[in-house]
Amino acid sequence: MTQDIELRHLRYFLAVAEELSFTRAATRLCIAQPALSQQIRQLEERLNAVLFTRTPRVTLTPAGKAFMVAGHRALTHVQQAAAIATKVGSGRRAVLHVGLSSAASMTQFPRVVREFTEQHPDIESRIREMHSTEQLEALRTGALDAGIVREAPSDVPFVVHEVVREPLMIILPERHRLARHAAIPLSRFADESFVLFPRSGAPTLHDQVVAMCREAGFTPRVENEAHEWHTMAALVAAGFGVSIAPASVAGLRVRGSTMRRLLPEADRTALYLCTPANAGSDALGAFARFIIAQMRQQLNGARGRVPLTRPSAVGRPKR
Q1: pLDDT for 53
Q2: Under DSSP, is residue 57 helix (H, G, I), strand (E, B) or coil?
Q3: Quick one: which of 17, 170, 238, 251 could link to 310 by a disulfide (CB 3.0–4.6 Å)?
Q4: With contact defined as beta carbons under 8 Å apart, do 292 and 268 qualify?
């Protein structure tokens, strides 16, 4: 039965499959040829399949060829698992310090990092929530190994990959006169007070929001500022004004506030994975490849709808 196959059977089989000679394989394994032949026959009995033709010379059968491919893969996985167990058992785990903006925390990024940790138990990821500008400075000084930032730095020392792209939406009080609409022209908010974040925290996004308003025919009247999306949504709920935020902010579920699509829907904002250009760590390379692949896979699967966000927090439009 297959559950009776042992690791030695796999090693013996691969030696014969690679040498195509029981004599050479026995020499390589430092065992007697009759013992090797007996182990291969035992393996074939347990698999209920003939792996080798033995006359006039040793060749692989179709079953043997298939088992060789899978066998190499299985042995590699066992060796990798053993190496990871040894590293973790000795306490020699690689540690990555990863920055996370508040906006990124509302996407699938935290869950993807958890998946990476589960699949790479020899690598520990330590998360620090920081504004984009703080992350970039920490990356420059080496305090962070990677960051998910709203700003895409043009500095040569960084490698930048876009991993999230989502629409900008309007946050307004639930009882606002326009809340019954599913999508609202931005020009309808020309006379409203706005709650925005300081430009110093995310200059690119701040300038994008202001540019959107000017294209709609007005300059936003910013009467209140907040550094965190949760605070901004709470101020909107309390009646201090309206705001513009990435769609993922809907995941906050702030009571008394709601989010609606803006017209036109051309403006989108991005999040980027940023790492130092000179970082040669195997752990960081594995982390970056995993994050980019997973986040882009979800992004591609979300084309045509609000991507990478938790379910909408803000209720349905009134009819």
Answers
A1: 92
A2: coil
A3: 251
A4: no
Residue 131 pLDDT: 82
* β-strands 221-225, 123-129 pairing: unpaired
Domain 93-319 -> CATH class: alpha beta
H-state helical runs in the chain: 7-19, 22-29, 33-47, 62-89, 109-119, 132-141, 203-215, 229-237, 282-301
The better pLDDT of the pair 269, 280 is held by 269
Domain ranges, ordered by start, for the chain: 2-89, 93-319
**Burial class of 56 by CB neighbour count within 10 A (0 to 12, 13 to 18, 19+):** exposed
Three-state DSSP class for residue 60: strand
Q: Do 108 and 57 form a contact (C-beta atoms < 8 A)?
A: no
Q: State how far the Cα of 236 lies from the Cα of 174, in Å rounded to an integer.
A: 9
Check residue 155 and give its pLDDT: 64
**What is the topology classification, in CATH, of domain 2-89?**
Arc Repressor Mutant, subunit A (1.10.10)
Tokens linked to 114: 């958890």
Q: List the alpha helices (DSSP H) in 120-228.
A: 132-141, 203-215
User: What are the beta bridge partners of residue 263?
Assistant: 185
DSSP 311: S
What DSSP state is assigned to residue 305? S
- Rounded CA-CA distance 299/146 in Å is 20
Residue type, 21: S
Q: Which SS3 state, helix, strand or coil, does residue 276 take?
A: strand
Q: How many CA atoms lie within 13 A of 143 on its CB side?
A: 11
